[in-house]
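ASSEMBLY PREDICTION REQUEST
Request ID: AP-0331
Submitted by: J.K., bench scientist
Number of chains: two
Total residues: 322
Priority: normal
Notes: Please return the full assembly, not individual chains.
Input sequences:
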Amino acid sequence: MTREEIVEKVNNFLVEEIEIERDLLKDDARLKEDLKIDSLDFVDIVVIVERNFGFKIKPEEMKDVKLLSQFYDYIEQQLSK
Amino acid sequence: MKYALVTGGSRGIGRSICLQLASMGFPVVINYNSNRTAAEETLKAIEEAGGHGELLPFDVSDSKSVDAALDGWSERHPDDYIDVLVNNAGIRQDTLMVFMQNEQWDQVMGTNLNGFFYTTRRLLKDMLTHRHGRIINMTSLSGLKGLPGQANYAASKAAIIGATKALAQEVGARKVTVNAVAPGFINTDMTQGIDEATHKTLIPLGRFGKPEEVAALVGFLASEQAAYITGETISVNGGLY
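STATUS: Completed
Returned structure:
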């Protein structure tokens, strides 16, 4: 899966399932402060990522993921394993 | 389809809860640990009343057993989820604390408290993603006031009340409610050996309760009518506090 495909998939589920406005989805957007992703949204994201990308997010691996671009990086790294 | 799971559903209050939820239209997953015959009787009673149910044996005190059984259930039911969880499985091993063995403490905590944790943790994610769920935890009069000889049981049941309040705040935003029900003396196998004639004089309503009187409250808490009640512990004890 290319970086562009990952970005498109992630952005689509953030808009459709987490109900974040598409305009806010910029690479440097902060997940908590700008996108208002809270810990319950994170539960949804874990489930959606598993469904869409076929791997389970480990919460401890996400602790340094602060920006949307870092979240794309994380998914890219996991898929390349 | 939305299912209900009752842990320790084969006998006593658990059986009545299974029947109550089935009468409300929920297909009921009846969990039991060892008494298959009793669980089959519960299932038969549900079916005779026109309801639907299935058996799902696992040991609530063993996290691997809980996950394996519920993972298997999910695989067999790809389009269903458990919307109502009644954490009812519980055991008693009464003795004065000075005589209490480590095993008596650990086993009661293992089933009554760890069982609640393992089962709820496994099912919570589905409730959160479906934006709906009902968790009803069976606690006890003993967890509210304490009873001599029940330091282990009372501690486990008091802990359930604390966990109920905390979890209710965690998951309320996803329309998942979490409540506890605290029965007093109810006529079941668990209260056999407790002399009703002696104890009923302490109870304002003058008698032990019936399992179906507890089940009626659980049914209400599982219903849509109870959508705005969460974090509560409600007693069913004939006025005995």
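REVIEWER COMMENTS: Chain A has three helices and no strands.
SIGN-OFF: pending second reviewer
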